[in-house]
Every structure is written in structure tokens, then in C-alpha cells.
Amino acid sequence: METLLTVRELRKTYRRGGGVFSQGTEGARFTAVDGVSFSVSRGETFAVVGESGCGKTTLARMLLRLIEPDGGEIRFEGRDLLTLRGEELRSQRRQMQMVFQDPFASLNPRMRVGEIVAEPLTIHEPGLSATERLARTTTILGRVGLDKDAMPRYPHEFSGGQRQRIGIARALILQPKLIVADEPVSALDVSVGAQVLLLLQELQREFALTYVFISHSLPVVAQVATHIAVMRAGQFLEVGRAEQVLHQPKNNYTRELLAAVPELLRV
Questions:
Q1: I need a labelling partner for 100 at 20 to 30 A (CA). Which of 6, 55, 56, 209 fits?
Q2: pLDDT for 134-177, tens place per residue?
Q3: Helical H runs in the chain?
Q4: Sign of CA dihedral 56, 57, 58, 59
């Protein structure tokens, strides 16, 4: 399979905050992402799983350069993303979109749903007529299960699951090749989250999408992943095909995670 995304030795450190209880540590740094390397093939779902605070979200945001790494390499379709600036970076970003964890905080509460979903078109395809933009927006909202009556309404008028569908529609409207999904169902209840996972799988098949899927939940990852990376303290401890990681783990930490969800061992 053709490689879409390649990451080599990606690193990110942060300065620890000072304060009355941190005397002597001011200026010290901690490593959020520590030399992570992996590659993702077209059409697959590469899942990064680990506990809160392990560096998953920092990694996800660096892939789209929402956070700038301290070192390493990110190649998308062979191009070095870290060397791109201005219009070149903007052009590349339309191929890489993100679905965020919190489906309320990620939507502008002062914008109507139609404006939110169409906003990427306004930025990246300013030559579109209003009619064309409306047609594209209506079509993609329909594909995620929302009709055109949603367009004049505001995000607070929708449930959490519906808001996440709005976020997915916004990410898809530019027809990207890669979606980075950062804990896309963790803020939803189990049944609604399961529906969103099914939708993401359907959209992947329909639009030939590639996913980098961030999660703290092995049961969620087991449903969607083709490959899994187990992350702890900024490092990948184990990377492999989903079947191997879930059923023949090589790392003790992976075994501990699996032992906490024994139903996975019987799948």
C-alpha cells in the first residue's frame, strides 16, 4: 500500500510552569512527545492509544502544525510539511483536517451551522459562488445525517452527537485525504459514540479517507483500527497491526492495558 504520512523522530517539550510550589523547577522542561516515528498507508486507520497525559493530543496537533514541533520530520505525500509556509502550507492543509474531542468547544457558538460547515470553503475555495457553496454544504450535512433545516441553527441547539456530526461535516467538506480524529467519541455516551464510530467507518469507505485516530480507549480502538501504536510518557512502546497488538502484545504495558478490558482478549 502507498504511504501517505511519514513521521520521523518527532519531539515536543514544554517549559514547566513556575509558581510558589515549584521553586527550583522554574525553567525546567518536560517532554510531551519524545522521538516518535511511524508511517500511515492510504486508506488505513492508524490508532494511537494511551492514558491521559501521555502526549497523544500534542502529537495529533503537531501532525497538522497546530503545534510546532521542536524537532523531527513530517512528510505528507512525500512533502516535508515543516518546510512549508504561507500559501503552500495553506494548500497542503486542505488535504489534512481534524475532528476535535469536544464537539461543543470546537464549534463557534456565534456562527450558524451552515456558516461553520462552509467556512473551510470560504477560506480555501473563495472563487465558489454562494449557490455552489450552499449546495456543497447541504450535501455534506446530509451525508452525516443532518438535513438542511440544521443550517440556520446554532450549535447549542444540538445534542453532543449531532454537534460531533457537524464537526465531521466541516472536516470533510474540503474532501481531504487525511483526517486526524482526536478522541472523537470520548465526550459522548456509549450508544451515541458507537453511532459516530460507524459513521466514520462508512465515510472512510465512501471517500477513501485515511485516519489517524487518537483514543484512550482500547475497546474503541479495537473497533476501527488497522494499526495501533501504544503510547506512554511521550513514546511509542509498541506499534503493529491491530490483531497483533490486541491479541499478541509484545510490551508489558500493552498487556496491562488489555488486562483492564478482558473482554477484548476474547474477541
A1: 6
A2: 999 999 999 999 999 999 999 999 999 999 999 999 999 999 99
A3: 56-63, 86-93, 113-124, 130-143, 160-172, 190-207, 218-224, 242-247, 252-259
A4: positive
Torsion, Cα of 71, 37, 236, 196 (10° steps): 100
Burial state string for 196-221 with b = 16 or more CB within 10 A and e = fewer than 16? bbebbeebbeeeebbbbbbbbbbebb
Distance of CA 208 to the CA centre of its chain: 16
Give the CA dihedral 129, 90, 6, 252, nearest 10 degrees. -90
The full DSSP string for 112-142 is -HHHHHHHHHHHH-TTS-HHHHHHHHHHHHH
3-state secondary structure of 48: strand
For residue 151, the 8-state DSSP code is T
Q: What gap in Å lies between CA 178 and CA 45, rounded to an integer?
A: 10
| 85: its cell numbers | 509556509
Closest C-alpha to 73, from 30, 97, 29, 38: 38
> Does the model's pTM come out above 0.70?
yes
